[in-house]
Amino acid sequence: MNIHEHQAKAVLKEFGVAVPRGFPAYSPNEAKEAAKQLQGSPVFVVKSQIHAGGRGKGRFEGLGPDAKGGVRVVKTADDVKANADEMLGRVLVTHQTGAAGKQVNRLYIEEGADIAKELYLSLLVDRVSSRVSVVASTEGGMDIEEVAHNTPEKIITFTIDPATGIFPHHGRALARALNLKGDLAKQGAKLLTQLYTAFLAKDMDMLEINPLVVTGDEKLIVLDAKVSFDSNSLFRHPDIVALRDETEEDQKEIEASKFDLSYIALDGEIGCMVNGAGLAMATLDIIKLYGSEPANFLDVGGGATTEKVTAAFKIITSDPKVKGILVNIFGGIMKCDIIAEGVIAAVKEVGLKVPLVVRLEGTNVELGKKIINDSGLNVIAADDLADAAAKIVKAVKG
Ligand code: GDP
Ligand code: MN
Are residues 96 and 154 in the same domain? Predict the structure, then answer.
């Protein structure tokens, strides 16, 4: 689960992390009020709050190419209001939002920082070493993927073993990686401990600070923060769940989570309903192999009931991009005849406006196929994975 920048900063602040003062704002008037609260700051920063990065270099739809991006530094409370007026409700397109962009529904109004240097720092779960990876670079403020591509030597990585925890040598490694000296090195070590503590306590799976800045008066502050949490541990963090902003999430994914379906929206045209994550991945691969693109990943799970299959069907058919549906079920614990009945019931309830290919294999497969053939519905039966992929791609592409 992702949260907004201002929420991430509030979470980090609980752990003692130095962040600029700021207030979220949902209207131009609130934005102006926020700026007044921050009086004393020579400049204010008006920051779009969307679940995507690259906001600074992003472009608003409907404003010319010369208009300012999604992060704006302005001088007065009235400027804050005027910019808020222009930004709120408008769609911001960044390299992370895709072409469709994201509507800006809230802003974060912050006191400005006097930036001497921009650095990069992130913590993430490294599945290979089973540790927390620390990634640091002196090249902050820019797209880290670009730094990794052009100057990989400028990215330093080390790991922290959760069994033994954080040690002073990790702090020294960070200071070396970021070229921090004297008191700044001490601030860096302290920050790393705070971030690591927050990371573990809140079950984060990614914490990215870009930029981490050194100010003119030699202070280290977190200027941007992006955090995502391990969904499997949200049950023990009601405070984090309360930060969820469903308007930032795919509606189909929200609906799927209500039925305990593992669903991820993709960009293609073939809707997929599969049981088992491995089989679902293989199904996506073979659709591509046969020349089309999947519209989603969907694992209905081992114990798929008629209700679940129906819910899955509704979600798949609610996607206007879907031009055909491929059901690929391996009946193991679940019997093929039960699945066939579930699919038929779902099709009868939801209706079917696009071609549907069903491939069943496993326990009671013959009975399952007979149920589908006898249903009178326009369902194309397939024998194996390749046959199923070929048939659905042909049905869609003609
Ligand atoms: P992102 O583009 O979505 O990653 O948003 P950031 O929060 O990283 O902001 C983009 C850039 O805006 C930063 O890299 C800074 O260069 C600049 N910026 C953000 N806050 C301030 C600030 O307080 N003062 C100044 N001068 N620049 C800022
Ligand atoms: Mn950033």
Answer: no
In a domain, 1, yes or no: no
Binding site membership of 74 for ligand 1 (Cβ less than 6 Å): no
Q: What is the pLDDT of residues 26-60, one digit of tens each?
A: 999 999 999 999 988 889 999 999 999 999 999 99
Last residue of a domain, one of 212, 240, 268: 240
Query: Does residue 15 belong to any structural domain of this protein?
Result: no
CB 227 within 8 A of CB 2: yes
Q: Verify whether ligand 1 is closer than 6 Å to residue 69 (CB atom).
A: no
Same domain, 233 and 133: yes
Q: Which domain holds residue 130?
A: 115-240
Q: What is the pLDDT of residue 192?
A: 98
52 alpha carbon, closest ligand: 1
* pLDDT averaged over every residue in the chain: 93
DSSP 188-257: HHHHHHHHHHHHHHTTEEEEEEEEEEEETTS-EEE---EEEE-GGGGGG-HHHHTT--GGGS-HHHHHHH
* Ligand 1 atom with the shortest distance to the CA of 52: 3
What are the tens digits of pLDDT across the range 139-167? 998 888 899 999 999 999 999 999 999 99
pLDDT at res. 302: 73
Q: Per-residue pLDDT tens for 4-20?
A: 999 999 999 999 999 99
The domain that contains 133 carries what CATH number? 3.30.470.20
Q: How many independent structural domains does the chain possess?
A: 3
The set of residues, in sequence order, having a beta carbon less than 8 Å from that of 324 and lying 6+ positions away, is: 269, 270, 271, 354, 355, 356, 357, 392, 395, 396
Q: Which ligand sits nearest to residue 47's alpha carbon? A: 1
Q: Among 145, 209, 224, which is best to mutate for testing ligand 1, by the most ligand atoms less than 8 A from CB?
A: 224
* Ligand 1 atom at minimal distance to the Cα of residue 47: 7
Domain boundary residue among 111, 126, 157?
111
pLDDT at residue 373, as a whole number: 87
- Positions marked active-site: 120, 208
Distance 105 CA to ligand 2 centre (A): 19
Q: Whose CA is nearest to atom 13 of ligand 1?
A: 141
